[in-house]
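User: I want to check something. If I give you two sequences, will you return the structure for each one separately, not as a complex?

Assistant: Yes, each is folded on its own. Here is the first sequence with its structure:
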Amino acid sequence: MSLLANHAPRYVRLMKQALPISLSATAWIALGLMVFAAASGLAFASWLDKDAGIFMSLVEAGMSWCF
């Protein structure tokens, strides 16, 4: 049997067709990703701003080895 045998018609017939995604669903997904990116960016920026205080509180609690 050849590696280049034509199995495409049988394979295509059994495949499920992808459903199109509506524009409103795409917009909601994009909005959700933007909100998540903004929230994680703000959390990271505040962590960078307060990093010494966070580390010192971990030292006082004896948990700085986790950091």
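And separately, the second sequence with its own structure:
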Amino acid sequence: MDTLLRLEHTIAARLASGEPGSSYVAQLHARGLPVIARKLGEEAVEAIVAALGPERGDLVGEAADVLFHLLVLLAAKDVPLAEVLAELDRREGTSGLDEKASRSA
């Protein structure tokens, strides 16, 4: 978890720089939320494709890309990772079926 927290801080610092030429994160942010969201979607599809392939390392790499781009999206929306983790903590011990049913009620 420390790795994700460090990455969240790095992303925040790169967003604060505001210079698209200074980092990939700043460049994505300058292009806007739709581009960030699309990039996350692309990475998620690539992770799915990798999961269906034979190479474990491909999935590991794509999963890292998904987590990275999710953190960029969360930062762009000013949603701290701690808030997402708190939601996971809230759901802990609850059946996935029960949790899903509670959202549709």
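Because they were folded independently, the notes below concern the second chain alone. The mean pLDDT is 93. The CA atoms of residues 33 and 76 lie 7 Å apart.
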